[in-house]
Amino acid sequence: MPSSHVPASEPPSDNGRPSPPREARITAALIDLADTLVDDFDPAEFLYRVAEHCMDLLDIGDAGVMLAVPEGPLQLVASSSERVRLVELFELDASEGPCYTAYHEAVTVDHAIGPALSLRWPNFNARAHRSGYTSVHATPIRLRGSTIGVLNLFRRVPGPLLRADQDLARALADATAISLLQQTTLDQHRTVRSQLESALTTRTIIEQAKGFLTARHGTDPDASFRRLRAHARHNRLRLVDLSRDIVAGTISLPPPTPRRVRQTPRESLRSESGHE
């Protein structure tokens, strides 16, 4: 594999501590994706983690995961933002685009997105360009010779995905397929089809809960989803179970805490002394 364009030592993060080297993050991601042999495996949460690892490791602006059950249509199951979710839903509705083609032709597709008319996917190209994307790299997720989905990587800066990132995207797609297959061995009565159907069903429930929180608390969809996942993780709940309870009204999340305005030292002294 060609050497990565990311340096071995990462720059300091906002809190002043350096983040782990890219090689260490790659190892951690592959270990995380392999850890599916658990009784309470949540396929929806797993696929959102796939998108998150893509965002962390690759030079991209957004990521999405599409899957399909055998004989069934391709569907979006996880995305890194509301912006890319809408673009990919448009692509599926229009039945055209690089991600759609990558799945149906079982080939990796690179596509530059720009203001000029695209002869191959004109509707997708125009929609993606309006959303701020400059290119997309679509990698099929293949399992035992069959394509079960596609990993979609969108960029917002000029230029295609570098070869090192393309190779890593292929590895992440393979790890996703292997992990889905590995989890089915826990129960001989389970099949790949049932796992994929579960992921597609839970996606609908999660989207309903996200929309409910967005409307109820007046936040944007991305912030609502982050709160939903944070609450599930903190309380060790399955994301789909928490989403189902929120939609049913048996669990309610508190409204988001308003961000405190940081005071200057002079303002703090005035507050402590009781002066307006």
UniProtKB/TrEMBL annotation:
Q: Looking at the record, which segments are called Disordered?
A: 1-22, 250-276
- UniProt cross-references to InterPro entries, sorted A to Z: ANTAR (IPR005561), CheY-like_superfamily (IPR011006), GAF (IPR003018), GAF-like_dom_sf (IPR029016), GAF_ANTAR (IPR012074), WH-like_DNA-bd_sf (IPR036388)
Record SUPFAM superfamilies: CheY-like (SSF52172), GAF domain-like (SSF55781)
Keywords from the UniProt entry: Kinase, Transcription, Transcription regulation, Transferase
Q: What are the Basic and acidic residues biased-composition ranges?
A: 264-276
Q: Which Pfam families match?
A: ANTAR, GAF
User: What's the superkingdom here?
Assistant: Bacteria
ANTAR domain span: 186-247
Please identify the protein, giving its name as recorded. Answer: GAF and ANTAR domain-containing protein
Native species: Streptomyces longisporoflavus
